[in-house]
TrEMBL record:
The keyword Signal is assigned to this record: yes
Name of this protein: TonB-dependent receptor
Origin superkingdom: Bacteria
Domain TonB-dependent receptor plug: 129-238
Signal peptide (from-to): 1-25
InterPro entries with a match to the protein in the record: Beta-barrel_TonB (IPR000531), Beta-barrel_TonB_sf (IPR036942), CarboxyPept-like_regulatory (IPR008969), Plug_dom (IPR012910), TonB-dep_rcpt-like (IPR039426)
Organism: Sphingobacterium ginsenosidimutans
Coiled-coil segments: none
UniProt keywords, alphabetically: Cell outer membrane, Ion transport, Iron, Iron transport, Membrane, Receptor, Signal, TonB box, Transmembrane, Transmembrane beta strand, Transport
Mode of membrane association: Multi-pass membrane protein
PANTHER family associated with the record: FERRICHROME IRON RECEPTOR-RELATED, TONB-DEPENDENT OUTER MEMBRANE RECEPTOR
Domain annotation TonB-dependent receptor-like beta-barrel: ranges: 384-824
Amino acid sequence: MKKNAIFRISVIFSLLLAGSYQTYAQVENPKPIINASLTGTVVDAVSKEPLQGVTVQIEAVTHQVKTDSKGVFQFVTGQKLPFSLIVSIVGYQTRRIIVDQSPTVIELTPRLEALDQVVVTARRRKEQLQDVPIPVSIIRGAALEDAGAFNVNRLKELVPTVQLYSSNARNTTLNIRGLGSTYGLTNDGIDPGVGFYLDGVYIARPAATWLDFIDIDQIEVLRGPQGTLFGKNTTAGAFNITSRLPQFTPEANVEVSYGNQGFIQAKTSISGPLAKNLAARASFSGTQRDGNLFNVHTNRKINDINNLGFRGQLLFTPTENIKLVLSGDVSSQKPDGYGWAVAGVVKTQRADYRQFDAIIKDLGYELPYKSAFERKIDLDTQSKADNKLGGVALNADIKIGEGTLTSTSAWRKWTWVPLNDRDYLGLPVYTVSAGNSVHNQWSQEFRYSGKISEKVSGVVGLFGLWQDLGTDPVHTEETGSAFWRFQKSSTSALWETPGLFDNFGIKTVYGIKSTSLAAYTQIDWEVTSKLHILPGLRYNYDKKKANYDRQTYGGLQTSDPALLALKNGVYTNQTFDINADADNFSGQLSAKYRFNPKINAYATYSISYKPIGINVGGLPTANGAVLLDLAEVKPEAVRHKELGVKTNPTRNSILNLSVYQTDIKDYQTQVQTPEPGVNRGYLANAEKVRVKGVELDGNINIGHFLRLNGALAYTDAKYVKFTNAPVPLEEVGGPQAFKDISGGVLPGVSKWSWSLGGEVNQSGKLIGINGSYFLGADLFHRSKFSSSSSPSQYLNIDAYTLLNARLGFRGSNGVSVFVWSRNLTNKDYYEQLLAAPGSYGQYAGVVADPRTYGVTLRYNWKQGN
């Protein structure tokens, strides 16, 4: 779909929805019975200036009025003084007051004046953030929207302990504290260690986490193992995403943004009652942006954004003790491909004629750019990355006794249709790389959370996840007419045999059916008013059944044993079947102690496991034999220790500290090999990995005008023991293909990362509208980190710091307008470095976005405000 079409659809849809609710809003309030009158004025508690458009409503009565330009309101009502008023307006704390005389003056405090006690559901019940004995980072929906975070990719700039890398949606690494998913190219045969939950539904595949953030209420990022609280066993942490629920009070939100690089985004949401106990919510998002890389081979831009998303919900409350939510969502992402420029060339230990520069010189080729930051690429294969995802879920909350029984039933589907140029060159080396995949998942969770006795509360649950993942219909890898020169490993003239590798490739068909079942519980025992003991236990059963069949095709058809040997050195037929299952017990023991109302400390020790992995990206060979013993990857065993303290130094500030260490046996990692037939790498086990660190985060509100927030993370992640790892790129062709990298750093982990943000607010007026002006800025920094599973002196990404900013006006009538910029200083940096298949010496860079800027117009309307 073209940009203009998306823009028209988005804007028209937004305006239609907004218009329909504006009409709905004009329904007259019932006329009151005249019996008493009340006159008053509403003012800003700080500036004492009158506030226009404030809603003043008598409690338990539908009759309401709004203040005029002088902040004055007048009631004529059937009620008699005294009575309770509810006074509200966007940007101020809602007040409930009792009045007994007229006239009266009511002061409203800006929301920034007092630090809201954030409510989280991290322990499957509503609690204040500072009471939860878990390190949790909270991002509110409004903060996401102001930061332009319309998918998970932006979260890494808001939460320093999150690492996200992506060369395209499928190849997404989403980690917390350096752990979770394998770094680099994704292998479908492994489970993520970071749980990703949308309204209680676990989303199993990393690519499926790329759903657009549509109408999000808040995101909780939980750090450390969470297997005794969540459905799927999560060894590194979890993202708990909560969307805004349908409302019985009509409301509508419309937002339109326009920026450089052709950025256009339209979002809208409407909600309201359909019947007495039935409410609905419908949300839509459309995003378009021009490509930020120019392919000189095709004379067109790629790496654009072309997203459409929809989410609908029905809320049914037949009684006050039952809440049913039926939801469905769909996202379609069709960028004009992804591409990568050559970021550098490494001299390997191969012979001189096998070095990259010598190879392309013999082929008469020269890179048409000097630096990847020119944002030029030269790709002779079309790029494609169609990512479709969505699902349906039914969530039921039933209050029983002193707790709530929750049932979450869900089905989700992910479809991936890619086409990549994996040699990063305008030469026919690897001409086709297409890992078409389809994934279906079904999940069911039953959970009861509540009080068991006067001193004991907790959660107990049952969870089931069934996955069907496979090729759709096949995965294809194919070489072209220039491949022979890259693969040439001797001076034999046989390499120059015409057509030897032309259109030579492999077609792979595989399927993985997996079952994950679990029972879990966690208890909160109040030993004293200050001391709580929290034991948790989990039982896991995991089963994976896989079939893998890879067949070669094409190239020169010959019976010559010498030529066949050359072809077999590139691609071989591979077939295997696996039927494996395992069960285990895991759990944790935590203690929480509240020294006083301002200091809450906790300690945790936990044991958790990550299921068996299956290699479905191709297996390496040795002396011509396929290493079938590598088809199965051992499960991870995780031991985690953590100490933390949560404090409220003042009424308007929070400061939290945590110290942790995680030890992993049989760490599942993705490693690279020079073999072209394993160009996505393969899974392996490192004997032992250790991650330890310190995290500090906090925020403070100063008066009604200034909010500051910050987070600092120190992470030391290394291989304690990995004795049989592939050599790094610069050692390819040397005397050994494997080496001991014990003591080396894990990929993708910076020792230091931090974020610092702030926002200044000042009451004022814009074209007669009361509200507040604001100026906000966010800094994000991370230190140097490795971009190779086997540490390399070349594949390291330098430290960088990003500055994002926004300036605008929030009106008390729901209208907001602001200008924004991301990467304001136009910093050039890489998000990831990728060695080319075959390890010929060249490596590509995933170049981050340059400076972007634009303007956003937003309108939030709610009946009564």
